[in-house]
């Protein structure tokens, strides 16, 4: 059984490498319009901006809170947590659609470019999952519950400061560094548009014509 699993993993890895190499050789013939490069499904487009928008607001609010004090800071963090909980809820259907819908081929380019795109997407998904989950764990076991705009979801009946503290430290550490994945992701769009002359937005933009 182990050998069969090993052979399957190796086979999929080799197929993936071959696919990346094939895409890298097609750079010069790649179309410039995102519609010709293939599109994500309507559901993926919708949840891309829904989850991405929620995450972007979360990052913006927590950075804003660093320059505030007192009630203003508390209010800002309340909405930071609310949007974080919203992002957590949106990630469930997004992952389901991602796993069940047809995904367009990678944008043709050099091997390093295609691999960098895959790595960035994987890191972004990990970021979008880890941050809301660690925030939920922190709020649930911290004793204050989970703020959600007009209400608060109750936390654990018995608070556990040790778990809450560990979740907070991980949440803060990962968030501090991983937030830079967002400008890197947006910057990649600019790289394709301004440097390579490709408008790739139609692949993911819901109403782009």
From TrEMBL:
Localization per record: Cell membrane
The keyword Nucleotidyltransferase appears for this protein: no
A cellular-component GO term for this protein: plasma membrane
Cross-referenced InterPro entries: Cyt_b561_bac/Ni-Hgenase, Cytochrome_b561_oxidase, Di-haem_cyt_TM
A GO term for molecular function: metal ion binding
Superkingdom of this protein's organism: Eukaryota
Transmembrane segments: 46-65, 77-97, 122-141
Name of the protein in its database record: Cytochrome b561 bacterial/Ni-hydrogenase domain-containing protein
Protein keywords: Cell membrane, Electron transport, Heme, Iron, Membrane, Metal-binding, Transmembrane, Transmembrane helix, Transport
Boundaries of every Cytochrome b561 bacterial/Ni-hydrogenase domain copy: 40-206
An individual GO BP term: respiratory electron transport chain
Organism: Spumella elongata
Main subcellular localisation: membrane
Pfam families on file: Ni_hydr_CYTB
Family recorded in the similarity comment: Belongs to the cytochrome b561 family.
Membrane topology: Multi-pass membrane protein
Lineage: Eukaryota, Sar, Stramenopiles, Ochrophyta, Chrysophyceae
